[in-house]
Structure formats: structure tokens, C-alpha cells
Amino acid sequence: MSKILVVDDEPDISELISLHLMREGHECLCATNGLQVMPMVLEQQPDLIVLDIMLPGQDGMAVFKRLRSDSRTRSVPVIMLTAKAQVTDKINGLELGADDYLTKPFSPRELALRITAILRRTKIVTHVSEVKTGAFLMDRKNMKFFHNDKPIDLTTTEFKLLAVLIENTNAVHTRSELLREVWGYSDDVATRTLDTHIKRLREKLGDAGKHVVTVRGTGYQFLIEAPVAG
Amino acid sequence: MSKILVVDDEPDISELISLHLMREGHECLCATNGLQVMPMVLEQQPDLIVLDIMLPGQDGMAVFKRLRSDSRTRSVPVIMLTAKAQVTDKINGLELGADDYLTKPFSPRELALRITAILRRTKIVTHVSEVKTGAFLMDRKNMKFFHNDKPIDLTTTEFKLLAVLIENTNAVHTRSELLREVWGYSDDVATRTLDTHIKRLREKLGDAGKHVVTVRGTGYQFLIEAPVAG
DNA sequence: GATGCATGTGACGCAGTCGTCACGAAGAAA
DNA sequence: TTTCTTCGTGACGACTGCGTCACATGCATC
Known about the structure:
Two copies of one chain form a homodimer. The first copy, chain A, is of the alpha/beta class. Chain A contains eight helices and twelve strands. In chain A, a hairpin with a 4-residue loop joins strand 7 (134-139) and strand 8. The first copy, chain A, starts with a strand and ends in an 8-residue tail after the last strand. The relative contact order of chain A is 0.09. Mean pLDDT of chain A is 73; it is low at 122-134. Chains A and B meet through helix 4, helix 5 and helix 6 of A and helix 4, helix 5 and helix 6 of B. The first copy, chain A, binds a DNA duplex through helix 6 and helix 8.
């Protein structure tokens, strides 16, 4: 699902980390030397970097500073690994803008969870759900919407409307709520504009349009069948 | 800057935390009992919650589950506090979707930094800078832009253009870079479209338009005078 | 200061988007 | 089934936003 660069000088640790990340469906790259990092990031464009503080060649903090000083790599989230709970390192890392840090020894499972959490927050891409019909993806940054990795171009109003619906999947959104959120209407206005836009949305969504469900007398909802509860 | 709810049964700790957060410019609310949390969140709508695991009334994990099960409170980021490095708690917390956790004893400064980090990632609102002329605020969620808390309405293209510029303040963006980022042009195209949109942007920004600076022969930058370096 | 090039600016036409309305279809209530 | 309400749909006019162009302005180099 995501491409992750693991930077650690101990091959055992890199391998352990990679193994767990790949098990989660991520693609992994490894670097053992600090000097390899910049060129690899520029070439491979990973979605996230797991960076050890102690490295031969160039230490982790220096690598991190270089990453953050270059506009091409500034936005790549970084998780730092520290050998021991060295508070100054933690604070330095966080102060410089690391997205998280982890103290060795750590459970690989925890690392995987933290990576998922960070990707969820930083990608700006909201992964809505995966159902039989495929995945819905919303990319606020580029104001685009994907269904089954296929981009669907929506107008500004359509995107806003879908964003509100999809932000709270399965929740029923009343007409007045939608008119407020999307159009900024403060008091109830009798208008068919919403209906028309729902129609246009359904059209552009094609098959996926069936997820936009009318709740008669109330409003609309973006309905995804819930996974079988355990 | 942000409203933060601190939930801890020990007043000493709450006070210490609040003190540091307020020093960072945040607004603080306190709760000592787990049962107070939901109503307070609904009423006060904090931007973030600092939640102790050990609580009278209803323990932190239960409170957290309730927060996440209600659509009205689902998106509020939560930092969990654990008394000791109880790995199962950590994993439970992260698995359930906590945005971070902190193990007691922790440095209040670290908490403040983590809060800043999380708000930076989750708020979707990018706080660009505060200069004499006031603050610039970009709200991706509503695709709006504020200057001195005054909304400025921009068209989609204008917003995208400004977003790219403002995402890397003071960095020079080449023409081809902007044409690629905003218009999706892959190869260099000779067009005056960019110039026109820059002009329109400057017009709508009014006084703030002076921050959009031409870098002759190269491109444009969004220039904010750097604070006096230490 | 003169020349050449890059950028600013105003105007214009096309294309796309929006909201409204009228009418038809589909539920709900009786 | 009949009646009433709510929602779906297609068409239409108005408007907005966009990209292009022509011309004006401004900077740099000599």
C-alpha cells in the first residue's frame, strides 16, 4: 500500500522491520548508511521514512535536518528510532519536526501501528472503505476523488457535497445539514439544488453512485455495508 | 490558539499540564471524572483531548471508545496518558485509533510539542505565519483562505495556486513547477495563464498580495519576513 | 539612455457550472 | 386505489471562471 524507507545500520533490525511492514502490505526499501538516504528519497519517493539516530556515514539527526531543509523532501513523514530513552533526542527530534519517535527495543507491531497512524494523518488521503466493489479514496490536497484507483472529476460543489457525506460514512445527513455544510445556508431554505447535485453526483460516480442513499423525509447518507462484525 | 481538554483525576497533574499548554497559547479545560468527558466534548468542542487511562467514574479506555463510537466526536484527536509503559495499553490505544500516547512521568514540554505536532497534522488548517500584518490561515477542508481572520474567497485554481505557494513559504517556485502542480502540465508550456492567475490572486489578497513576490526569470514565492533569528 | 526580454494588466469569448423550474416517478397515508 | 408528499430528472438561462491575446510596464544589460 505504501512505500517505506527503513534506514538502520544493523541488517537484522532492518530485516525484522521490513518483514513486519511487508506483512502489512507495505513496500520496503532499506538503507544502511546515512549518505544513501537523500538520493534514495529523491529517486524512490517513499511515503514515509523510518530513521535510526545512530548511523555510520552521517548520523540520523543530520540526515533528518537535510531532509527537512530541502523542499523536495520536506513533507515526507519521518519516524525516528533512538537506542535509549534519551529525552534530549526525543525533544530535539520532535522540535525539528519528526512525526514520531520510537525507543529501542520496540515491538515491530507497535511500529507498524504507528506507521499506519501517521500515514492516515499525513497522507491527507482518506481511505473510506473497501467493499466488494472496490475502494473509495478522497484526496483533499488535489481535490480529487478516486473509485477503484480511477479518478472521477467533480466540480467544487460536488466535491464538497461528497466530502461531507463520505466523512461520516453510513451517517444520515439531513437536508438542512448538507445545505449548511456545503452551501453555507444558515436557516432552512426550500430549494431543489441539493437534489440536483445529488443526481449529478450519482451520475459521475457511476456504479458507485448506489452508495449515495436517499433517506426519505430526512436527507442522504453514503452507505457502505459494514464488515461482518466479530 | 487551540482549545484542549485535559482529563486527569489528579488536580496537580492537570494543573501542570494546563499551565504549560496555556503558556503555548492554548485554551484549556479540565475534567477529573470520565463521565464528564462526553458532555464536555459535545458542548465545548475541544480541538484535542489529553486523556489519562486511570480515571474514576469511567476509565480512560472506555471513555476513548465512547468518543470514537460517536460520529460527533470521532474525529477529535486524543493523546493518551499511561501510568507505566504498559505495552498492552499502548497497543490497545494505538489500535483503537489514539493519535498518540505518553508514559508518565513525562516532560510537560514534550507533551506540548506532541500536541503541536498532532494539531499540525490533524487540523488540516495550516497555520502559515504570524507577521505584523496579521495571520494567514489556510483551511483545506472548506477550501477557504483567511487573512486576519477575514475570509477571502478564491476560485479552485486560485486556491490551488496559493496552496502550493504557501505550503512552502519563502521557497521559490519555478514557473514549470507551478504549472505542473496546479495545472498538471508535464512539459514546459509557454503560457501567460500563470501570470494572469497571479495577478488575480494578488487582487483578491489585497494588502496581503504583496507577499506574492515575483522572482524574475524563475517564478514566484510567497514571502514572509523571517522572525529575528536567535 | 537605448534595447531586449520578462512580467503586469485589461478585455474578450468560450466552456463549464450553478440554481431554478416544471413535470414525472415513487413512497406514504388514508 | 386514491391522494398527498417527497424525490428524481431533464432543460434552460444566468453567471462565473478560465485561458488567450494585445498592449503596457518594468527590469537588466550594454
